Structure to design on (476 residues):
């Protein structure tokens, strides 16, 4: 096997670089350079101000409400993603802050998931959050549960939990598919305050209708910086804004170019 | 050390998979396949074991406490009976495993999926209260889309399907693309933060 691999590597007939992906490489490297520059070259006097995000501002209220009502907080990352997805990582970042608050308030907590890898990572994240809050003894490993890998098995399990436990607050943050509305409507029917966020534009519409607060698109990824106030993360969020401005400029130039010279298709990479 | 090694492994694999994406060499394809399929399956198999142990423990404890006992017992029986049927009679078309799958699991999944129709109706009813200008625009767009999908739309006004298509393909698509650009940039910066080690929440440490 080693010999065949060596032969393949040394084969001069096969090119290493896929030229069709050159524009993507240039765009990605430019984006990476801007993000890294903004992150590592932040000055101590730089002040990062992020606009208020209703859903994230309501996190503490939602947990406080659960404590007052002596009902649990339910957090679920949805069925659509695995740990490789940036959305799941973003969801873990929010989970870390939510779990810290839950530990401080000594609220009940339940985290059902469809993926055993997510379960294992979430257990570690929540354990650390409880330790950081100064209450490691309050952490219960079984509160973070694997329920089923089947989409509607997972939906039925979480729906059942919501109906029986009647959580005061529900966090639906991650990658959701058809189960989104089933969970959000069940949460609505038990009177829970619901904070949702996903990268699926189709499911966003359902969340906006059924939930109290919805993190739309990039807000989910900016949540970590918003909640922690970490300057490096906030600097990377600023880099995102710079990239957005560049994309807008590129779109304007492309529109003008397409209008003036319709036969030219340089932007169609 | 407990965090540095996973962080190093994460950074290394992040960079390798990034480089591999831009190559059409068979070696790059093989690396991609090995990491994303073979390694992933190994990790998944081990954590699945952890997940099942946790599932069985939680349900057994609940059965002992007489807490939601019927549901817990059905879950446990289901968990053990399916692998047993597969091991004894296999998973071919006419096996007991497939019979249970087709006559028990599939109808139950369809039942849960069917609930969606009622939930869409109740959510739409709440969402279409025209309490503000954006809500009124949403209501009008939704009615337009709804009418355009029925046969009566052409009888009422033959431009209805065209208008609904315009709403879907122009303002709605523009909004979706704006959200998708934000999501793409958010995913890029989140991934970069993880690869370079600025974001370490996934390791259990915030910073």
């Amino acid at each position: 096997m080693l010999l065949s691999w060596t032969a393949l590597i040394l084969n001069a007939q096969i090119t290493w670089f896929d030229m069709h992906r050159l524009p993507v490489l240039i765009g990605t490297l430019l984006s990476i350079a801007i993000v890294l520059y903004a992150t590592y070259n932040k000055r101590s006097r730089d002040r990062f101000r992020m606009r208020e995000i209703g859903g994230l501002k309501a996190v503490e209220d939602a947990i406080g409400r659960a404590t007052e009502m002596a009902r649990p907080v339910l957090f679920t990352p949805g069925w659509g993603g695995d740990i490789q997805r940036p959305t799941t990582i973003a969801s873990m970042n929010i989970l870390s802050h939510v779990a810290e608050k839950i530990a401080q308030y000594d609220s009940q907590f339940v985290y059902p998931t469809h993926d055993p890898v997510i379960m294992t990572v979430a257990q570690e994240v929540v354990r650390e959050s409880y330790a950081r809050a100064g209450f490691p003894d309050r952490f219960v490993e079984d509160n973070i549960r694997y329920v089923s890998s089947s989409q509607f098995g997972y939906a039925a399990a979480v729906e059942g939990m919501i109906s029986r436990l009647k959580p005061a607050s529900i966090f639906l943050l991650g990658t959701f598919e058809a189960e989104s509305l089933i969970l959000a409507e069940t949460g609505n029917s038990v009177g829970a305050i619901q904070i949702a966020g996903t990268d699926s534009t189709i499911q966003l519409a359902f969340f906006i209708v059924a939930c109290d607060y919805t993190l739309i698109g990039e807000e989910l990824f900016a949540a970590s910086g918003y909640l922690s106030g970490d300057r490096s993360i906030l600097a990377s969020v600023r880099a995102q804004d710079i990239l957005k401005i560049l994309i807008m400029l590129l779109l304007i130039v492309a529109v003008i170019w397409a209008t003036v010279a319709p036969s030219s298709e340089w932007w169609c990479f | 050390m407990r965090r540095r090694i996973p962080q190093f492994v994460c950074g290394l694999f992040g960079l390798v998979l990034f480089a591999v994406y831009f190559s059409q060499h068979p070696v790059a394809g093989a690396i991609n396949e090995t990491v994303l399929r073979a390694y992933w399956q190994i990790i998944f198999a081990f954590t699945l074991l952890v997940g099942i142990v946790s599932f069985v423990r939680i349900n057994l404890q609940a059965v002992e406490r007489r807490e939601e006992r019927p549901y817990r017992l059905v879950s446990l029986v289901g968990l053990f009976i399916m692998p047993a049927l597969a091991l004894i009679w296999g998973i071919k078309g006419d096996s007991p495993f497939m019979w249970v799958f087709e006559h028990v699991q599939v109808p139950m999944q369809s039942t849960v999926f069917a609930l969606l129709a009622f939930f869409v109706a109740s959510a739409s009813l709440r969402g279409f209260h025209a309490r503000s200008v954006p809500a009124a625009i949403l209501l009008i767009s939704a009615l337009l889309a709804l009418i355009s999908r029925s046969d009566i739309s052409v009888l009422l006004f033959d431009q209805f399907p065209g208008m609904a298509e315009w709403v879907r393909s122009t303002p709605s698509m523009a909004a979706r693309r704006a959200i998708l650009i934000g999501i793409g940039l958010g995913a890029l910066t989140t991934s970069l933060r993880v690869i370079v080690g600025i974001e370490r929440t996934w390791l259990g440490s915030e910073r």
User: Anything to note?
Assistant: The two ends of chain A are 38 Å apart (CA to CA). Chain A has two domains: 54-227, 230-258+265-269.
